[in-house]
Amino acid sequence: MASTPKQTPVQDGQHDPEQPDATARAVTEAALFEAFGGVRGMVETTVPGLIFVAIYTADHDIKISALAALALSVVMGAARLAQRDTLKHAFSGIFGVAFGAVFAMMSGNAKNFYLPGMLYTLGLAVAYIVSAAAGFPLLGLILGPVFRENLSWRKRNPGRLKAYTKASWAWGLILLAKSAILFPLYWWGNATQLGWVKVALGIPPFLLSVYLTWIFLVKAPPPIDVIAEMEEAEKAEKARASSAS
To answer: Where do the TM regions start and end (predicted)?
Structure first.
């Protein structure tokens, strides 16, 4: 897992003229990689669904297809834990596949393997759009701690607020378009059609969303490192206490 390069504190909402573009790009790339899991995260999100639809296409056995997808997801999650990766990335895929497997086996409808993920995608799309329209973009809440800026972008860095708002709109609209393709297939298509289309739509929309986020944030002012500010304030307080004693 890539770590986020430490930021040099900057004045509220201002560009640091000495910070090279290459540094801003590297910091943004590292933060996005950490937040969204990178290439490995995309593979772990896509492959269980691919396994399910491939096995189901071959023999139309819901139970075997669901258990095979779940077993693979558990193996990938265990590999992350063995490498001491973040619990978020290790368990998020397992839970999603587990819900889908249970839904499919209990209902006897293979299409329900994909329903939890589809509902999550739709809910996330709505959350991105509503939060962006309300001026409190969800992407800022997700990436703020990764950039060590927390919520400073809300009041102190209007350029970052604008970038997060644009990126949240992008994520919301892209995920909404994905949902607009998948739900009609869920209602009127068969499980095989839904499965292969969902696999095909797994990575491209994600890559487009991440790329647009990167574009918006690279062009925005650098984050205000509030963690460094707090550390500096704590050091100054200790120095004053030492000099007074």
So the answer is: 89-106, 118-147, 168-189, 195-217
3-state secondary structure of 109: coil
Count of structural domains within the chain: 2
> Within a domain: residue 224?
yes
Domain boundary among 74, 94, 113: 113
Q: Give me the residue label for tokens 């460094």.
A: 228
Please give the chain's pLDDT, 245 residues, in tens. Answer: 344 444 444 444 445 444 446 666 777 777 777 777 677 777 888 889 999 999 999 989 999 999 999 999 888 888 877 877 665 665 777 888 999 999 999 999 999 999 999 999 999 999 999 999 999 999 999 999 888 899 999 989 999 999 999 999 999 999 999 999 999 999 999 999 999 999 999 889 998 999 999 999 999 998 888 888 888 877 877 777 777 76
CA 169 to CA 228: how far, in whole Å? 30
Scanning the chain, the segments in alpha helix (DSSP H) are 21-36, 38-59, 62-82, 87-107, 115-133, 138-143, 152-155, 158-188, 191-200, 204-218, 226-244
Same domain membership, residue 198 and residue 127: yes
Distance of CA 44 to the CA centre of its chain: 13
Looking at residue 113, the DSSP 8-state letter turns out to be G
Question: pTM to 2 decimals?
Answer: 0.82
| Of 163, 178, 175, 236, nearest in space to 209 by CA | 175
- Domain range for 102: 32-113
> Is 2 domain-assigned?
no
